Amino acid sequence: MPIWADRLVQSLKESDISLVTYVPDINIHQATQLVSADPYFHLVSASREEEAIGIAAGGYAAGRNSAVFMQSSGFGNCLNAVGSLCLPHRIPLPFIINLRGGVGEFNIAQVPLGRGTKPILDVLGIPHFTLTNEDEVEPVVKGAIKLCYASRSPVGICLTAQLHGGKNA
Question: Could you tell me if residue 97 is inside a domain?
Answer without folding.
Answer: yes
